[in-house]
Amino acid sequence: TRSYSITLLPGDGIGPEVISVAKGVLSLAGSLEGIEFGFQEMPMGGAALDLTGVPLPDETLSAARQSDAVLLGAIGGYKWDNNEKHLKPETGLLQLREGLKVFANLRPATVLPQLVDASTLKKEVAEGVDLMVVRELTGGIYFGKPRGFSSNQNGEEIGFNTEIYATSEIDRIARVAFETARKRHRKLCSVDKANVLEASMLWRRRVTAIALEYPDVELTHMYVDNAAMQLVRNPKQFDTIVTNNIFGDILSDEASMITGSIGMLPSASLGEKGPGLFEPIHGSAPDIAGQDKANPLATVLSAAMLLKYGLGEKNAAERIEAAVLDTLNRGFRTGDIYSDGNTLVGCKQMGEEVLKSV
Amino acid sequence: TRSYSITLLPGDGIGPEVISVAKGVLSLAGSLEGIEFGFQEMPMGGAALDLTGVPLPDETLSAARQSDAVLLGAIGGYKWDNNEKHLKPETGLLQLREGLKVFANLRPATVLPQLVDASTLKKEVAEGVDLMVVRELTGGIYFGKPRGFSSNQNGEEIGFNTEIYATSEIDRIARVAFETARKRHRKLCSVDKANVLEASMLWRRRVTAIALEYPDVELTHMYVDNAAMQLVRNPKQFDTIVTNNIFGDILSDEASMITGSIGMLPSASLGEKGPGLFEPIHGSAPDIAGQDKANPLATVLSAAMLLKYGLGEKNAAERIEAAVLDTLNRGFRTGDIYSDGNTLVGCKQMGEEVLKSV
Ligand SMILES: CC(C)[C@H](C(=O)O)[C@@H](O)C(=O)O
Ligand SMILES: CC(C)[C@H](C(=O)O)[C@@H](O)C(=O)O
């Protein structure tokens, strides 16, 4: 048996419910493939704020660092919305990404044939969409300095941030993106605002340079405003997209909504070495927390990404992916993806159905 | 007779064709309302680069400044795409916005009942969409300093930009947005990334403060990633949106594509005083330039915005808007909005049909 240590960060809202389902699925799929897991649950986000006064306790970060992979539920909620910046759940998430040095965020947006009706896009536009956004996650305007508040010559208050990228930061995310495209349909679209921003001009120049290492991948460039349009006009034109932290935040959310089922979408955040961070792209949904209504499949599929990208356990990953599809084919749906003729289930029962299919 | 001087900036690609149509429509609608126009055509964008070596000649800017309003076609094209930054057509446009101090960019995105099928969104999601994006246009990361290229401690090249807003810049765009919302359905959604960026925290704080002056307008706040999703999920939830320069660039383009007919969408850019700048939101479409295929209606509707917002000539503006609807009702369509059962026309004939309806 191979054995791995997994840090579980249930977090806030529906986080604990979906993590509990994903943990069960991981265990079963693992055991069927000769894999053993040691799970350690740690506080994070609002839960950690209430417990310890900070959104990412040192113990949580060091446990995460020492494990083989980290699975996060969701963070945030109304209760902490007006906290000062360093006491926001979101700040804990940014500290975790920085602390784990997970610079590459992979966000697939796939329209499953079973769920094509969930999209607000016309069927012929939505069906067959299968794209991957590779978002730079530890640089750019999220972390750039100088940042803060000050006053200008007129004595007025100003707020400012710095969008900044160094060559090596662009090169490494570009390589991840080209490698990702290579495993898909060998088409990479780099998104920037190089007609206005110097940081984007360097981005475009470096991505173009790295492309020489990947002659088998077709590289195109697109401005971010156009990309936001093209995702609505014809999302099927995209295979792999690579972009900076803030544009990736916006475009990956837009792409996920195009699928119509954000309760289904996982993500992986990877570094050069060390454990990866895996989480559903949806939020903590405080309005339905604790009501057994959440869709656990995004977290279950995040566990599959953990196996594939984090641990190199491809068979166990595919076992989980197949189980999710089988469960959908058997007609089970949580409320967010429910449509006529299917069976409405809660979070727990959805988990049990997936277990039957594993 | 009232008389006004209008600077026409045809620009590149399809720009000259659509400006020529809009000029004719302006003249006729004006004359029927007792308005006389003096038109002056000036070079701008790639056309100006070829003629004078710069994308915004001094003569063009001063002519624009001295006129009562400026109507722009479109700028840019493959030919100048690899120019250095200060020799890009886009740089001319940014200089024009800065030179005219037009800090408030109004971009309506309306789904006309006649064109609801053009949207890639399902009919029930698209029909009735009628929103206005108020984008800050002369500040933020587009103009913020410091910016440029340099090297970091490791001797690596870096590219950087500054996202920066001062209180007065936020206050004035917020007031325009509240005034705009007041003339619509009194709902304003301010979009920012205040969970991460200090510039956005100040933005949210000031917009909230200005809201006290407009107790009759309902103010909400939304993060930009969520806004990008909500525009796809349920665009009808929005009435008026206010946001910074870069988020406005992205979201207004996304919103325009949701209507499915970007060939129909106008924009207005307004300052504290002095002439406003009016332009279609579509680009220069070099692939169809000179082929009499362009849809001139976005520019015609921009001329209507010029009358309404630039000159306070509401009657003439409404005459043009009504003429455009009447022309659509009579079944005339350019290629970009064509659907079965209608009459396909070119740019010129579309212009002639609008003239008949004025
Ligand atoms: C919660 C927030 C800080 C975060 C981000 O902006 O990165 C989220 O939107 C995401 O995309 O994971
Ligand atoms: C051409 C470009 C500089 C411009 C912008 O980014 O503002 C355009 O995209 C727009 O939205 O008018």
UniProtKB/TrEMBL annotation, chains A, B:
Gene3D superfamilies: Isopropylmalate Dehydrogenase
GO biological process: L-leucine biosynthetic process
One Gene Ontology molecular-function label: 3-isopropylmalate dehydrogenase activity
Superkingdom as given in the UniProt entry: Eukaryota
Record keywords, A-Z: Amino-acid biosynthesis, Branched-chain amino acid biosynthesis, Leucine biosynthesis, Magnesium, Manganese, Metal-binding, NAD, Oxidoreductase
InterPro entries (UniProt xref): IsoCit/isopropylmalate_DH_CS, IsoPropMal-DH-like_dom, Isopropylmalate_DH
PROSITE patterns on file: IDH_IMDH
Pathway noted in the entry: Amino-acid biosynthesis; L-leucine biosynthesis; L-leucine from 3-methyl-2-oxobutanoate: step 3/4
Cofactors demanded by this protein: Mg(2+); Mn(2+)
Similarity section: Belongs to the isocitrate and isopropylmalate dehydrogenases family.
Protein purpose: Catalyzes the oxidation of 3-carboxy-2-hydroxy-4-methylpentanoate (3-isopropylmalate) to 3-carboxy-4-methyl-2-oxopentanoate. The product decarboxylates to 4-methyl-2 oxopentanoate.
Protein name, UniProt field: 3-isopropylmalate dehydrogenase
